[in-house]
Amino acid sequence: MEKADVIIIGGSAAGATAAISCKRRNPGKTVTVVRQEQQVLIPCGIPYIFGTLGSPQKNLIPDSLLTGNDVNLVVDRAVEIERERKIVRIESGNDISYEKLVIATGSLPAMLPILGIDKENVFVIRKDAKYLQDMLTTVNQAKDIIIIGGGLCRSRVRR
Fold it and tell me: In the chain, what are the domain boundaries?
């Protein structure tokens, strides 16, 4: 069984920031990030893929941001947390024990309950480089585009 003082599940903006902050404040501690994505996008840069950047590959968080700060990186999917035993089980079957656990898995897009949401060429914004590249290719070939929404979060009307 592997061992880490701190495990962070999720390797995007929040997870990477948590890992680097933890390591800088506690240089003697072992910090491990477990993330399922091979490549991680800078979330705030996603809109620029479709204009300024022109490619998801130009909007990636390099792994060296973590490894260069002495953070261990495990590219695998966390499938179970045993809080009592302080163990994270990953999909490959390995277990990693921890003292402290941070869950920084991010968000998923809201799927509107509208007719046709499941049709071909209807996209939501996902934090996945291949998916966004396929979307960009489709968008660049399209004659007409409809965009529903444009913000990062839903607002609620208060009464």
Answer: 2-103
Return the residue matching tokens 């897009």: 109
Which residues are identified as catalytic? 44
Q: State the DSSP code for 127.
A: S
- Whether the model pTM is above 0.70: yes
**pLDDT tens digits for range 17-55:** 999 999 999 999 999 999 999 999 988 888 889 889 999
CATH number of 2-103: 3.50.50.60
What does the block give as tokens for 113?
């309950």
Buried b / exposed e across 77-89, counting CB within 10 Å, b at 16+?
ebeebeeeeebbe
Residue 30 CB neighbour total at 10 angstroms: 17
Question: How far apart are alpha carbons 127 and 125 in whole angstroms?
Answer: 7
